[in-house]
Structures are given as C-alpha cells and as structure tokens.
Amino acid sequence: MSVVPIRRPEEKTVDRAAQLMIRRAEELGIETVHHRYERMQPQCGFGLLGTCCWFCMMGPCRIDPYGVGPTKGICGADADTMVARRVLFHIANGEAAHGEHAFHVLETLKEAVRSASEGRPFPYRIADEKKLRAIAKRLGIPDAETRPVLDLAVDVVRMIEEDMTRTTEETLNMLKAYSIEKRRRVFERLGIAPRSVWREAFEALHRIHMGVDADYRSLLLHGLRTSLADCYAMATATELQDALFGTPRPVESYANLGVLKPDEVNVVVHGHNPLLSMKVAELARSEEMLGLAKSVGARGINVCGICCTANETLMRLGVPLAGNLLHQEMALATGAVEAMVVDYQCLMPSLADIAGCFHTKLITTMPVARIPGAIHIEWKADRADEVAREVLRTAIENYPRRMKERVYIPDVKSKVIAGFSVEAILEALGGTLAPLVDALKRGNIRGIVGIVGCNNPKVPQDRGHTVLAKELIANDVLVVGTGCWAAAAAKAGLMTLEAQSLAGIRLRRVLEALKIPPCLHMGSCVDNSRILVALNALAEALGVDIPDLPVFGSAPEAMSSKAVAIGTWFVAQGVNVHLGVVPPVLGSKAVTKLLTEDIEGLVGARFVVEPDPKKAAELMLEHIDRKRRALGLPA
Ligand code: MSK
Questions:
Q1: Ligand 1: which of 559, 561, 566, 570 to mutate, most ligand atoms within 8 Å of CB?
Q2: What is the pLDDT of residues 482-541, one digit of tens each?
Q3: Which residues, in sequence order, are bridge partners of residue 447?
Q4: For residue 435, how far is its CA from the centre of ligand 1 (angstroms)?
Q5: Is beta strand 251-255 parallel, antiparallel or unpaired with respect to 414-418?
Q6: Are 391 and 366 in contact, with CB atoms under 8 Å apart?
Q7: Is the pLDDT of residue 70 over 70?
Q8: pTM for this one?
Q9: What is the pLDDT averaged over residues 19-30?
Q10: Which ligand 1 atom lies nearest to the CA of residue 311?
Q11: Of 529, 532, 553, whose CA–CA distance to 606 is shortest?
Q12: By CB count within 10 A, which of 67, 241, 446, 487 is most buried?
C-alpha cells in the first residue's frame, strides 16, 4: 500500500505519541485515517454545505447555493429542506446509538434483578445499591430509602422500559426525574418533550422520507425533540451503569500510547458499552489469567482502552487510557497489541487492515457491530464471564506470535486523575454544592465550560481540545468534560494536580483547596448526562434557569452523529454550544440562521461556530461575563 502524505504529522496532530506513530505507519506503508483523509481531497462541496440529497432513488440531487445549476431537487425539495433533513437524520442516528446502548444496559439490569430474586447465578449484579436508591428516589418511587433494593430495581426497570416504548403522548419518566421545572415548561410550550426513546427516532426517519416533512422549521423542531430523547437515553445508560458497576470516584492512572507494555499481553478495549470491557478488565487481574499469561512468557496482562470504553474502565477500575478516536489505529500500528476487543460505535473498519499487518487479533463482540476480517466472539449477558475468558485466552495465546522486532511503542504517557462523577464532585466539595456556588458568586470560579466530543481529521488532533481548555483555565474558568476531549486533556496532562499551575490565580486557589485538577474527567460521551445533572443542581441552587448560568458547552473536534444529537440537546437545555468544525449546514441560510440565532428565542441558547480555539475561548469568556453581570455577580 503506498502512502503519500500531504501534511506533516505535526500538522495532523498535536499529540507527540501520534506524531511518532504516523511516521512509523508511513515507514511501514500502513495507511491511516489521516492518509485516507488526504486521499479524499477535495471533498464534495455539496456534501460539505449539506445540499446533497440521497434519501430517494430519483436522486442523488444537489443544489448549488450560489444559484448556479438547479435550485431544487428532482422532487422539488429546496436547500432548506435538504439541509434540515440531514440535520434531523444525524440527530436521529445519534439518538438511536445512545438509545440502543441504554437498552442493552437496561436489559442486563433487568436480568440481574430477576436472577437475584430467583437466587440464580448471573454475571451481573447491582454493585451500587446507594445509586440504585438514588435513581428510584428521583423517579418518585415510594420508600426508595427503605424498601428492599431488588423491589426498587423492579420498579426502576419498569419505569425506564415505559420510556423506551411508550405509545401515549406523555413524556419520559427520566425527563421528569432529571430536569428542572423551568426547562420542562419550555419543552411543554414548544411541544418538544419526547414521548419515547424509540418513537422520536422512528418519527424522525419518517419525516425525512421522500414526500413527508418539507418545512425546515418543523424538521428542526422535531430535531430538538429527538435530541431530548437522546439526552434521557444517555442519562439512562449512565445511571444504570453506575448501579451495575459502581459510581465513579477519583482514580489515578496513565494516558497515551506509552501505557502499552513491551513485555505483557496487551489487550485494548474499544467502543462505548462497558458491559463486556469491565468483565475483561476484572478477569485480567485474576490469578487464573495471570498464570496463563506467565505460561506463555509474558510478565502479565495489560488491559488498556481507546475511546469511551476506555473512559468507562478508567473511571471505575483505573484501567490506563491508550487514547481517543484518532489513536485507535496508532495503537495497533505499535505491533504490540495481542487483541483489540471492540463493542460498538466509533470503531474504524480499517482496524482489521492494520491488525492484519501484525499478529493482532481484532475481536468484535456485539451482533450490531461486525467488521470483515475480525474474529467474532459474541457477548451475551448470561455468558459474559465465559466470553471475557475466551477473549483473554485468545489474546494470551497470541502473545508468542508477537514479532518483537516490529514492535514500536512511543514512550509518551501522562498521569491522569479521572472519575469525577457528580457524586464525586459533591464529595470533594464536602457533601454540598455550597462551596462551588460560593466560588462562582465571588468570581473565584468565573464560569464553567463543558468540553466534549470527538476527534476529526479535518482539524489537528487534540489541538482544539487542549488549546481551548488551557485558555479557559488560565482565565479562571473551571473545565469539565467527557469523551475524546477527556482523553485529549488526560494525554496533555491537564487532569493532574500539577496542572493547577496553569490555572488563573483565583481558580488555582479553589483547586488547591479542593485538591482537584483544573480539568475534570466526568466520563464517557454517554456521561454528558452527568454534566446535565450538575447544571440542573447549579441552576436550582441559584434559583435561575439554565440559560442564565455563566456556562458554555463546546465540541471543538466534533465528528459523529452522536455529537450532533448531544450538541442539540445541550442547546435545548439552554446551554450555548461551540463547534470547532463547520457542520454541513451552510448551504441553507435559513437553517444556519435558525441554529445560530433564532433558536435562542425558543430555548435560550444557540450554536456558535468558531474553528480557532483561542477566539472560541474569547467569545465564551464574553458570554460568561455577560451572564455574570445579568445575575448581578462581580467580574
Ligand atoms: S468516542 S462519539 S469519537 S467522543 Fe465516545 Fe469519542 Fe465522539 Fe466517539
């Protein structure tokens, strides 16, 4: 395979390990995402503007927004309709991903409860009773503090099952439990309170079918509704995962490709759902598996992670984080990975090609996410322990096949403190939000920004994530976040106590008193719901609505449909959202205006697009200061 790079590695990523690995891949003739991105240039202008349509077989159609060529598709759809349909498609796509993730966790909890009630063995159990009781209490289930936990769990499962499949016009139980009244009134007024997790995505796909909804305003209004279904599907996944595996608490570990070990069996877990990866990580610590690893000449088993499965296992078990989205191929190109075990979402099909260049086994585990060239060992809840054992055995038996002379592990890693769930933040604050509210009121914390989302090869990997975060903390803004941003910040050393020195003097004093880093790792991308819980609590503590808070959201390197859904629900919840990658909407002036201006009149927040992270930080600071003034808070 010939690899002819256009940009130098330093232009593709700010991550030192990735720069080294891109060079290494080029030496070995291995094509990576960066090279495929370059081969794809120039990308289709119609696609970039959002004015191409392939939703029916009269097409594909395209509209030149500058008026050269057709101004309508073959069916008569104009640019506004085309762009709005695509936005809705992305939101529904993201919502379906989170919805199914939540559903798998729900089904597993349901079976765990049933097995425990009947005294049958089952690989999963309620590990965090306190969390289960807290969820039940929020859902309004009576006697949540005193009833037997299994009884409560039955009711929790029933209420969330209703949310998945409801056929009436009532809204989600989870929305009622995890929203503030002021927001609920907005959702009701606009008619965007979602009815069920499945119904909103279903209706979205209907609306974008040829000959259904042609009005960009009504398409986008349903986009808001679908995004809120996404929001509460994510909250479901997060909360139930905490009940099954434990609510994260601060934990120390390491991040970046340097966590791979030259003399151990390296098993990389990748994807989003922790149902199998937690089992793999736990079993890898057993005497049985360690003995097996030693029998093939390895010093041990090193489980580490990529993307959000990494965040899940890092937060709960301290499993090292090998990297974010654009690190997945780099990890394999080290030649040091015995097995990469994937569940779903954000898996590049190219993993099979790169694994094929080495001894590495790529193992798919979920029926919905198969990759040609991979081995498939299917996860089933009742067989989870056996599947984890089979996965680890496959990796261990593969260790002797490692070609040591082809191994190259960049010696780059950083310490990280992760695991800042809302509960953990409250503990750090002494059990109450009061110190945070006080610091915010006095201006020692000027504002709070949540940075989330992916990597995208259109922009240098981690540049937007880290430059923005550094600018904000230097200006006394506390930064929290999830997903691939969290991995970027961890790799850059921003999630350590040493990084307190990068904070402005006022913020630094708060951080030192609380003994926390300036950038708080709140989890995987599904865990953006933790940020919402924190926002709700903050708004209630100040007696205001979310749009009144001195806060901002950002996805500097957004990539996936899930990011579109998440960004949209943050806006629906009243948080301005910055995007560092221009989304494919500019082909419609009306849609662009609605998303970046008019939507504020509906929900109190809007999208802001700014590719330069320093300029983005400036506009966030202006917004934060404006909100502070409106609340009567000092600068
Ligand atoms: S993994 S959705 S690239 S955050 Fe959650 Fe990262 Fe975005 Fe996937």
A1: 559
A2: 999 999 999 999 999 999 999 999 999 999 999 999 999 999 999 999 999 999 999 999
A3: 477
A4: 32
A5: antiparallel
A6: no
A7: yes
A8: 0.97
A9: 97
A10: 5
A11: 553
A12: 487
